[in-house]
């Protein structure tokens, strides 16, 4: 029985990155042998075991044969006769097909180390095309390692394009699509995930709402980059740079969906695109079963981002607009969400060619106004004897008066 450290742990060690989890491969053993040694089997159809002491995963070397559609349509064969090379051949990318034995020696039958040095994401074998989930995984790896200079190999991108054109992506469940997308949104360069999907023809199949934005122009004065799809990717990148949460990044991704619904004869103007975007955002969230936190922030961003931008220099004449914004976003009860919304709006403002370093003072200004207005609470009005709707009316009036004073 031989044990190897495999997969992401070896890859990240060679890249000098922190290793978060370790997976081990066992060659030349049977399930019975591992059970006798005290390992615990997890899953009935998958030869994976937990170490009796540290609970790390140990998988028996295996091969897979395609038996149906999608990423679950495989027959798994495992046994002591399966070699290390056999197992590594079934993996997705060469950089994930490197093993380290207990003596510290590397085993790299498919050129993973050379691809690490060349910063190339390349598929191991033609078996890559049998699993449609790998299209999303490669796009996610491209986003994760973009900062290190990694690019997708031309032949791998071409194979991904063939898979997209062949209809295999239709076998992916919404949960798996969202799981990969959520991981990609957490990357330093989440926009690369969607760029890669677009390059291989998968974006129009999985995210038609975004794909429809490419080729839709915006006013040159406000959008020197012109193309709304490009602007959306720039906004997503800026949201990541500002440290926005995954929900914030998702909202940045969705904020201009409504512009795809503008009749071409109205271009480059996009009147009411914020309201128009609510339907495609809900459609996407329903289709992929997106968490409610992400949906709510995306809907608020689409609905209100135009008004945010109209408050570049808040003054006395904008009292009603600011109150409308605070009321409409429920900022009184959910200030933390409003803070995320401010990051989204700053990302939209700065996610344009030539706008990246321009100041966005309304983020801090609006936050300070909200903080001060939230000190107005119901208690003193209840003490005055007010009841029911009268309390709400008194709070609103007090907020309006205080806001007017703050803006004068």
Q: Determine and state the CATH class of the domain at 1-113.
A: Alpha Beta
Q: Please identify, by name, the CATH architecture of the domain at 1-113.
A: 2-Layer Sandwich
Number of strands: 11
Q: Can you tell me the CATH superfamily of the domain at 1-113?
A: Beta Polymerase, domain 2
Number of discrete helical segments: 20
> Strand fraction band?
5-15%
**Fold-level CATH name of the domain at 1-113:** Beta Polymerase, domain 2
Task: Provide an overview of this structure.
The protein is of the alpha+beta class and 408 residues long. Among the domains are: 113 residues, Beta Polymerase, domain 2 (2-Layer Sandwich); 33 residues, no CATH class. It is 49% helix and 10% strand. It has 20 helices and eleven strands. The strands form three sheets. A seven-stranded mixed sheet has the order 3-4-5-2-1-8-9. The chain has a two-stranded antiparallel sheet with strand order 6-7. The chain has a two-stranded parallel ribbon with strand order 10-11. Strand 8 and strand 9 form a beta hairpin. Helix 11 runs antiparallel to helix 12. The longest helix is centred in the last third of the chain and has 19 residues. The termini are far apart. The mean pLDDT is 94.
Nutshell version of this structure?
The protein has helices at 8-15, 31-36, 84-89, 112-118, 133-144, 154-165, 174-185, 190-199, 203-206, 208-211, 228-241, 246-254, 273-276, 278-288, 292-309, 319-328, 335-350, 362-373, 379-383, 389-407; strands at residues 2-6, 23-27, 40-42, 48-50, 57-60, 62-66, 74-78, 99-101, 106-107, 120-121, 151-152.
